[in-house]
Amino acid sequence: MIMSYGEWMIFLGSVLFLASSGQGQECTTIIKNMEYSCSGRNLTQIPSSLPFTVMSLDFSFNFLSSLHKCAFPVLVNLQVLDLTRCQIKHIENDTFYNVKNLTTLILTGNPITYFGPGCLNSLHNLQRLVLVDVGLSSLQLQINNLTKLQELRVGTNNIQSMSLPSFMSTFKEFSLLDLHANNISIIKTDDTVLLREIGRNMTLILSRNQLLHIEPGAFKDIYLKEFHILSSFVSLNAQKECLEALTGLSVDKLFLGSYRMQWKVKVSNGSYLDGLCSIHFNEIYFVQKEFSDSEMHLFRCMINATKITVKSGYIKSMKYIRFHRLKELYLAPTLLSAVPLISHIPSLEKLVVRNNMPMNFYGISDLPLLKFVDLSGNFLILKDCCSQFFQRTPNIHYMNLSRNSEIGIADKPFSGLDLLEVLDLHHTKLVLVFYFGFLHGLKYLKYLDISYTSICHKTMIFQDLNNLNALKMAGNSFHGDALSYLLQNLTGLNVLDISHCGIEEISRRSFIGTQKIRYLYLSQNKLMILDFLALPNLKQLTSLYVDKNSITSIPLHVLQKLPTNLSEFDLSSNPIDCSCSQTDFISWIIQNQNILKQPDNIFCKTFSPSSDFRATDFDTDSCVHKKRLTIVLSVCFVTVVVLSSLLVYRFQFHLQYCCILLRGYRTPAQQECSYDAFVIFSSYDEVWVMNELMENLENGVPPIQLCLHMRDFQAGKSIASNIIDEGIMGSRKIIVVVSQHFIDSAWCRFEFELAQSRFIMERNANIIIIILEDVEERKTKKVFGLHKHLKNNTYLKWSRDPLSNMRFWKRLRKAIFATNQ
């Protein structure tokens, strides 16, 4: 068959289109020339247009059924390649020759049925190989040349033996083997030979396997950096036997127990963890899902640990245990009814007990190295805190007793705790017996949080806290000018939070001596003025939060003296006064949105407390309307004298408008209104006015008398005078019919401007706007004041729908009668 020239061109175009599908233009640039993502683009080949300098490529969730030597363009700098879930089934020999400098290769989730014997031989620099969920049944992989391999992740496969190939003994940098969620049930001594040879920096992950038996001695003389055996046993009996079989194993960090989402399990033998005694470990992370009606000996085999973390623990009591090397103890959360009697542990440095349920606390003692104590969130009730609860613990630097129920504080409560640097008591009711100097002696204290502690700062003075850097007192009560003496000794203060304290005024003396404050939080108070910001005491201030106060404006002299380093200023949720008397303040808000936090939440409350009109949208130009009008009048007068009659004719409406304004209006009280409403409309809309508006209003019950220019204006009288005398001043209400013809009509614009003038002079909302047809927002700006009027006032919209039509007439008549009241 012979093809014509046109058919050949169509054929070649189709071929080129198919050949170019999936090229580089469909990838996202993360870092130009270095990192690209082509994930989830339905591509069938690696884009050839990628720059040769690319170092990282995410090609996951595409379609590459097989990989061969030509599958990749030459990318000598490529180090990270992600081919997750690309439906890869075959990997041929020398597939990665063109990307041979890879250090990370991820093949997760591919149904690979064939690995070429030499498919990975080119990757001499590979350090991390991820073969998760690829259908592997054995660790006997052809990776002889990967001598720099550090991590091998082969989780979620069907591997039954953890025996590694013998040649991996030469992999001196190999440090992580991830075998999670496989099918390993038995571990023999021969399976761990290689682990014994590799060295002391190995991490082994066997979580979520189904271990049934470990041959005794299989892990003898093996040292692991981390050993993960979470949810790794078929039963608790198997767990106990397997742990006992780990005799001789040394582990730095041991991860044991169950995953948090698993159900709890009842055990009959509280000694189910005794097998841990055969393992030497430094740190243990235990997620407990087992519970028992009898006593559980959870810590019996942990006496030599340096760090113990128990999460989701179902222990109900913890007897005194003499730990030999324990430095850190974490218990969160548990079923303990009391904080354990921790004492006489000379090595303990950190104690954290978070139960999230009511507990008792009888104290801890004789812990000379203890620095960190966190007992927050335990609903504790302490009387005469705190020295008697922390006896012979002189080294405590951090103490967190927040989110408890009640703490009573007497005279010198922190005697013997002189080294405290952080004291956190927020959201805990404090009962102070002595206000003066209750923090006396804490000369090293840097952080103090007594927010929401029900303290009344009436007679409290902070003494000898020269190193205090952060003070948080939000949610308490201040009386009078408490700040003027409360802060006078805090010369090093950097952060001050006195939000939600009912403060109505801050005196000019409040921040004398606190010249280092950089972060000041005054949110949710009752402040109306911020004159204290003009003082030089706060020149270092960088962040100021005064949101949710009663601030209406900030004077210009204060704005001009704001700290020069101020970079974050929160004024949101204040009743800002958006009036012409505050143009300087509003202009400052508009010009400094870069430092204002949430500028879109700074609303004008001049019109209504519930107004959602943003201060940044306020038109400051409208405030100079009278000045602008005077200039326009002068220009018009000079123009009449100088320019030709053509220009005079062009501006005749403006001149008449000026003359009328100079003449002045008569108020409705000065003359009797002959009409209920004057209708401003374009002659092109006369049919609608006559057939719809006049018919429904004048012939309705009760009848409404309309003033229509073609019917009611006096003959022989100037149009402008008719508009003023008969229309605007002779009517109680003004109806404006807005349409495209209205926008284009000079007379309509003139009449609307006059109507606005009456509105301004009388300050009475006598204008009803009817939108006859949709008009683009930008076109409404052609009529002076119309766009703003539509934004700030409710208007009516004509519809031919019978139901909407009925509602329209009802609302219109109601508006007109409301004016007559």
TrEMBL record:
Q: Which positions make up the signal peptide?
A: 1-24
- What Gene3D superfamilies would the database entry show? Ribonuclease Inhibitor (3.80.10.10), Toll/interleukin-1 receptor homology (TIR) domain (3.40.50.10140)
- This protein's record includes keyword Amino-acid biosynthesis: no
Q: Which SMART domains match?
A: LRR_TYP, TIR
Q: Name one Pfam family in it.
A: TIR
User: Molecular function terms in GO for this entry?
Assistant: lipopolysaccharide binding; lipopolysaccharide immune receptor activity; transmembrane signaling receptor activity
Gene Ontology, cellular component aspect: early endosome; lipopolysaccharide receptor complex; plasma membrane; ruffle
User: Where would you find this protein in the cell?
Assistant: Cell membrane; Cell projection, Ruffle; Early endosome
Q: Which keywords does UniProt give here? A: Cell membrane, Cell projection, Endosome, Glycoprotein, Immunity, Inflammatory response, Innate immunity, Leucine-rich repeat, Membrane, Receptor, Repeat, Signal, Transmembrane, Transmembrane helix, Ubl conjugation
Q: Which InterPro entries match?
A: Leu-rich_rpt, Leu-rich_rpt_typical-subtyp, LRR_dom_sf, TIR_dom, Toll-like_receptor, Toll_tir_struct_dom_sf
Q: What is its main location?
A: membrane
SUPFAM superfamilies in the cross-refs: L domain-like (SSF52058), Toll/Interleukin receptor TIR domain (SSF52200)
Q: In Gene Ontology terms, what is a biological process of this protein?
A: MyD88-dependent toll-like receptor signaling pathway
The membrane topology term of the UniProt record is: Single-pass type I membrane protein
Task: Provide the TIR domain boundaries.
Answer: 673-816
Membrane-spanning segments: 629-649
Asked if the record carries the keyword Coiled coil, the reply is no
Q: Which PANTHER family match?
A: TOLL-LIKE RECEPTOR (PTHR24365), TOLL-LIKE RECEPTOR 4 (PTHR24365:SF521)
The Swiss-Prot or TrEMBL record describes its family as follows: Belongs to the Toll-like receptor family.
Protein name as annotated: Toll-like receptor 4
